Amino acid sequence: MSQLCVRLLGPVEVEACGTVITIGRPKVRTLLAVLALDVGRVVSNDRLTDALWGLDLPDDPHHALHMYVSRLRKLHPAIKQAVVTATCGYSLQLASGHIDAVRFERVTAAAQRRIRSNPRLAVRAFDGALAMWRGEALGDLGYKEFASGTVRRLEELRLTTIEDRYDAAIRMGAAAEVLPQLHQLAREHALRDRPIELLLQAMQEAGKHSDVRSAYREYCERLERDYGLPPSPGLRRLAASNGSRRTETAWA
Questions:
Q1: CB-based burial of residue 172 (10 Å sphere; 0-12 exposed, 13-18 middle, 19+ buried)?
Q2: Residues 220/240, Cβ–Cβ less than 8 Å
Q3: Mean residue pLDDT across the chain
Q4: For the chain, what is the radius of gyration of the CA atoms?
Q5: Quick one: how far is CA 147 from the chain centroid?
């Protein structure tokens, strides 16, 4: 079983004995994804058929499900060994660390605990975690009902990890190096406070004190123009502490 790894941070695929297996059939990918999201636990036949067909059930859904399980098992002997039949469903008997999404969460959680004490090590760990991503979580299955909640959670964690990575980089003295990326991140996620907060902090650490006010003002203007919103109280306090009092009073 240790020869098998399921990848969910991008198009659903399997790595077996060092070889990446691309799964062409969408329903086989769906079946594997549902089992992997509940790795080690039995997933009922009803849940599996609902994920595969929704309300458009075949004439004999349990027979059709068995057929797709058989197709999944035929992809590789290691998959055949890991997909186990239970009384009322199936399970993927695989160590949870062999699911890339689980491994990503563990690595990022450990790195977050090191941001203050060892930011350089945290940056390396965050980089390794982000390198696991190959595209949008679950690829073309992300829009399906069974996957939507998980995809939103993973994408939010991915963005938080990117922010944490820049936080650690600033703390290790690389503020000037990450300024271009933070400018872009703040533009792409104007409704999140943390990217602009990190940008202002990086500017301050990099000695670009005169740029803090103009960056904050530009952000406020874009927020009002595009969304009709003022900056949050927390961001206004941060801007004031960085010498932008004149700008922040416009929203007081």
A1: middle
A2: no
A3: 91
A4: 23
A5: 13
Cα distance between residue 232 and residue 235, in whole Å? 5
| Beta partners for residue 21, in sequence order | 14
Mean pLDDT, rounded, for 197-207: 93
Alpha-carbon span 199 to 202, nearest angstrom: 5
Distance CA 161, CA 108 (A): 7
* Its pTM surpasses 0.90: no
> What tokens does 73 get?
């098992």
Q: What is the dihedral of CA 137, 141, 144, 148, to 10 degrees?
A: 0
d(CA 108, CA 106): 6
- The DSSP-derived string for the chain is -TTEEEE-SSS-EEEETTEEEE---HHHHHHHHHHHHTTTSPEEHHHHHHHHHTT---SSHHHHHHHHHHHHHTT-HHHHHHEEE-SSEEEE-S-GGGBHHHHHHHHHHHHHTTTTT-HHHHHHHHHHHHTT--SSTTGGGTTSHHHHHHHHHHHHHHHHHHHHHHHHHHHTT-HHHHHHHHHHHHHHTTT-HHHHHHHHHHHHHTT-HHHHHHHHHHHHHHHHHHH--PPPHHHHHHHHHTT-HHHHGGG-
- With bands split at pLDDT 50, 70 and 90, how would you rate the model's confidence at 249? very low
